[in-house]
Design a protein that fits this description.
225 residues, alpha+beta, Methane Monooxygenase Hydroxylase, Chain G, domain 1, 2 domains, six-stranded mixed sheet, 6 helices, globular, binds zinc ion
Length: 225
């Protein structure tokens, strides 16, 4: 996994517990951060408990330059072994990008994620689209549209790992041996054309729901008038 290492100079938040590890994951949106955290477990395999969040400003040395970054830390305790588990994220970019708060903007940059790998994004895309169909079934076209657009955005995240002109992602797009193995077993699912087709299907579904959603709004306003 690609990880940015900063030398810690100063933490402003005096109440925060001391930072155990120097690994700070760079994320591109709050959505990406939440998705990453939701997939984490303790090293013992136990589920993680409620998270406490601490925001700090950090002055980091990057070569000879000193830059100020915004760091969010999450501290939690494993429900099984009671070990404390910490995660630290560099959220400097999402804070400066207002678009990142939209539900389906997962990463407003063209850079691939450093915390969620290609296989994980593809699974998230499948999950979001399944949820979109469920929302459709339950008669909620607005939720269906948002979820289908999020699924399409997750596919875009997979495609960000592909070098120009290549139809499959490099092995570096997979951050764990399990994930790489899954890719090697089912590489046809990762073919660029397959993913683009899937993304278009998701977008079409979103468009359909968009139409239904505004038809529903019109109907409701005509009834209420
Ligand atoms: Zn544990």
């Amino acid at each position: 996994m690609a990880e940015k290492k900063y030398r810690l100079r100063r933490l402003n938040n005096r109440h925060a517990p001391s930072l155990r590890e120097e690994t700070i994951h760079v994320v591109h949106s709050q959505a990406e951060l939440r998705l990453y955290l939701s997939a984490r477990a303790c090293q013992c395999g136990g589920k993680l408990g409620t998270r406490r969040k601490y925001r700090s400003q950090l002055r980091a040395a990057k070569g000879k330059r000193v830059i100020t970054r915004v760091i969010d830390r999450y501290v939690t305790v494993c429900r099984r072994c009671r070990d404390e588990v910490q995660f630290a994220f560099d959220i400097s970019e999402p804070v400066t990008n207002p678009k990142a708060s939209l539900p389906y903007v997962l990463n407003p940059t063209s850079k691939p994620s450093e915390v969620i790998d290609a296989g994980h994004w593809l699974n998230l895309a499948y999950g979001y689209f399944e949820a979109a169909l469920e929302a459709q079934f339950e008669g909620d076209p607005t939720a269906c549209r948002d979820l289908a657009l999020t699924a399409a955005a997750a596919i875009e995240e997979v495609l960000k790992f592909y070098p120009e002109g290549r139809s499959l992602p490099p092995t570096s797009a997979f951050f764990t041996p399990d994930s790489l193995n899954n890719f090697q077993q089912q590489s046809q699912l990762f073919h660029r054309d397959v993913l683009r087709g899937l993304r278009d299907v998701y977008r079409q579904e979103a468009k359909k729901s968009e139409g239904q959603s505004s038809a529903l709004d019109n109907l409701l306003s005509s009834v209420l008038d």
